[in-house]
Design a protein that fits this description.
This protein is an alpha/beta fold. It has 18 helices and 14 strands. Strand 12, helix 15 and strand 13 form a beta-alpha-beta unit. Helix 10 crosses helix 14 and helix 11 packs parallel to helix 14.
Length: 444
């Protein structure tokens, strides 16, 4: 069996295991367990200049090969172009993109440096699987170095309508980069249609034919077991006691303007204003670890959320009840799983998302005999495949409030039926099925 070489912006820490590993590492667990594999990419550390040779750590059949990024490269490649331009553009927020030629040159330079560092490590029959928007040009750079291995690319975030993407400076060049890959994967069929149209519009019809949707999933059984075990943890028991019988509404999101958090807080405020029966009877926990805290847009978002939290609690709190519990520090995955198990409502309302695995994790965590209700943005990639969800437009606070009222008031029979519909979707589209279907296409 060919070795699998996984190329990603960030390589997981070799010390990370299940509960602490990142989303991509969890999704690819099956793929790396089935064969010899290598993870290649950025170490997460910065240095004076970008390393030319990777540091390798071998654990059984898995090798971690990492490069430190030069500080200027980090600023231009990671902060400047990847997160400052591609991230907002791919999430339909072109107005937030700030294009600078220096950043774009840094982005292409890091992709070339990564390719130059990996090429000597490749074997002739390796399968190279490159992940996400940080690395659009990576496959083309490997081809320029004479690498002929089968290469696949997977985009974990949405791809916008081609007219929007083509408004981005150098969009044609980025699309031409994708022609180097033998398989091009995206999350949903809508994303596939958009990307095919964009490739065709710039004369890359052959590449367009290699685009397909491979919806990413989770290991639902593993997350269910994690949630069940978490009920015995001290943190979960203490939290459950603190609710004193109140219904729990829960959201889990990284701090980001794509997640619709101000709109979500506004919707919860509307619930308390319009549906007064829930005052004192429901508690909303929002767990939002801070990311990219050195970026002005994210600092502004955090201030806005702080103001919302203060406004809601200031207006509606009672001496024995805080309506909104808002956390910006990370919470361990097993603890989150336990909290999700307790939640009567999972509130997942991104403005735009490639898939959103939190929605699937919430369904997996539920008690089948007495499950909660998933309130889900219709703009999450997961929404078409989760028919038991209560779908909302995250830009409409009143619709969020009405959906929360319906979910909190829903009888058990309806909750069970809705959960069963989502259960079938979540268990039927697992992380294992995703990786195996993509690798099957890549092996050709």
């Amino acid at each position: 069996m060919s070795r699998l070489v996984i190329v990603a912006n960030r390589v997981p820490n070799p010390k990370e295991r299940g509960a602490t590993a990142g989303g991509l590492a969890v999704a690819l667990q099956d793929a790396v367990a089935q064969r010899e594999a290598m993870w290649f990419g950025w170490s997460g550390q910065t240095a004076e200049s970008t390393a030319e040779r990777p540091t390798e750590v071998v654990q059984g059949r898995l090798t971690y090969a990492t490069l430190d990024l030069g500080r200027q490269d980090y600023t231009r490649y990671y902060q400047g172009f990847a997160n400052g331009v591609l991230w907002p553009t791919l999430h339909y927020r072109l107005g937030l993109a700030r294009f600078q030629r220096e950043d774009y040159a840094g982005y292409r330079g890091v992709n070339a440096a990564f390719a130059a560092a990996l090429a000597p490590l490749l074997r002739p029959d390796d399968l190279v699987w490159t992940h996400d928007f940080h690395l659009f040009p990576f496959g083309r750079e490997l081809r320029r170095l004479g690498c002929t291995q089968r290469q696949g690319f997977f985009l974990h975030v949405p791809f916008p309508p081609y007219g929007l993407f083509l408004a981005l400076p150098r969009a044609e060049e980025l699309l031409a980069d994708l022609a180097a890959y033998d398989v091009i994967g995206v999350q949903t069929e809508d994303d596939a249609i958009n990307l095919r149209h964009a490739l065709e519009a710039v004369g890359q019809g052959e590449a367009a034919a290699r685009v397909a949707a491979f919806p990413v999933g989770i290991d639902a059984d593993a997350f269910r077991r994690l949630a069940e075990r978490a009920l015995t943890r001290a943190e979960t028991r203490r939290f459950h006691q603190s609710l004193v019988g109140r219904a729990l509404v829960m959201g889990v999101d990284r701090l980001d303007y794509t997640k619709g958090l101000p709109q979500r807080f506004a919707g919860y405020a509307q619930l308390l204003a319009r549906f007064t029966a829930h005052r004192g009877r429901a508690t909303y926990l929002q767990v939002t670890p801070v990311s990219r805290g050195d970026v002005a847009q994210y600092r502004s978002l955090r201030r806005e959320l702080d103001e919302w939290a203060g406004r809601i609690n200031g207006q509606y709190a009672e001496p024995d009840w805080v309506p909104l519990r808002y956390m910006t520090r990370p919470v361990q995955r097993p603890v989150l799983a336990g909290f999700m198990r307790l939640a009567r409502v999972g509130l997942v309302t991104p403005l735009r998302d490639g898939m959103n695995l939190v929605a699937k994790e919430y369904v997996a965590a539920q008690d089948p005999a007495d499950p909660g209700v998933l309130v889900l943005s219709r703009f999450a990639g997961a929404s078409p495949a989760m028919p038991g969800s209560v779908l909302v437009n995250p830009l409409d606070p009143d619709e969020i409030a009405e959906s929360l009222d319906a979910a909190l008031s829903m009888p058990r029979e309806e909750r069970v039926a809705r959960w069963q519909a989502n259960h079938d979707a979540v268990w039927g589209a697992s992380a294992r099925a995703w990786s195996r279907s993509f690798l099957s296409a890549l092996e050709g």
